[in-house]
Fold this sequence. Notes:
Blueprint: E1 10-14, E2 16-17, E3 20-21, H1 23-39, E4 43-49, H2 55-61, E5 66-71, H3 80-94, E6 98-102, H4 105-118, E7 122-126, E8 128-135, E9 142-153, E10 158-162, E11 170-174, E12 191-195, E13 225-229, H5 240-249, E14 252-255, H6 257-261, E15 282-286, H7 292-295, E16 303-308, E17 321-324, H8 327-341
Parallel strand pairs: 1-4, 1-6, 4-5, 5-12, 6-11, 7-11, 13-14, 13-15, 15-16, 16-17
Antiparallel strand pairs: 2-3, 8-9, 9-10
Amino acid sequence: MIEQNRKGEVWVFAEQEDESLNEVSLELCGKARELADRLSVRAAAVLAGWNVRELSYRLIAHGADKVYYVHDTHLEHYRTLPYARVMCRLIAKHKPQIVLYGATPLGRDLAPRIASEMRAGLTADCTDLQIGDYTEPKTNAVHKNLMLQIRPAFGGNIIATIINYDRWPQMATVREGVMRLRDGDPKRSGEIIEEKVEFNDFDLVVRLIERHREKRKINLKAARTIVAGGAGVGNKEDFQLIHDLAGAVGGAVGASRAAVDGGFVGAEHQVGQTGTTVRPALYIACGISGAVQHRAGMEESAKIIAINWDREAPIFSVAHFGIVGDLRKVIPMMIKAIKERA
């Protein structure tokens, strides 16, 4: 654990693989910029790898004032221990007050190890981050300008706000897509600081023999059109209607948690607080009641069409166009009209 440093920077771990930044790192740079401005401190990113210095300029363009760059052949491909060594050494040296990671498979592997080593708190899978004050209920001691780490809990049934006032740095992993990716400003200037970290034999005990990367089957974040089905679809067989409509409009297939839990479609299609946050140009919600957990993941879509037999369904509160009816009748009619116009 490091001592509290109220002037400490706000950091982002810049996740990169094969000389390409994960988009969540750029999303977090924008959020770090916002938090740093609230705290009147600087925002920074930590970039570790081999021959990836050029990525520093994208991080600066998206809000970082500094990039701490660690360049070493041992960092060419991700391994937990060398990357954890880099982060722990830099945290101990520079004492940031906040460190953010993407809630990706890599981030979920790395962040807990760093938290354990630094004896710091860590909140996983945050959907929002804010700055606020906290008053201890027993002592009435006031802790100002803490990071409020907001995330769903108990299966998404409640929203929890978690604070860490005594074990710093304050650290969180943040879900992909929940922070808006802002346009980068290539004219922004920033400082690239090269750091050297020595590794010991224990850090390098795991050797990479072969790499196999499976391509992502679906990228909901990048989809311009999404057709999503919920529990109201009824069963896995009828969920084929969602696939058919998505094919007709050239969109991706999404789903509510209820549809995923029902076995209608795989978890990679889930939209919502416990799934993927999306902002497509068009979102068609079919048989989705519109629980708050689902709406939080899609309500910023440019246009929303809702199909539901229940005219009181909450999904209609965020829909731009609503169709009250049986989706088994409505969707075939939509597909037919689309094909006739083609």
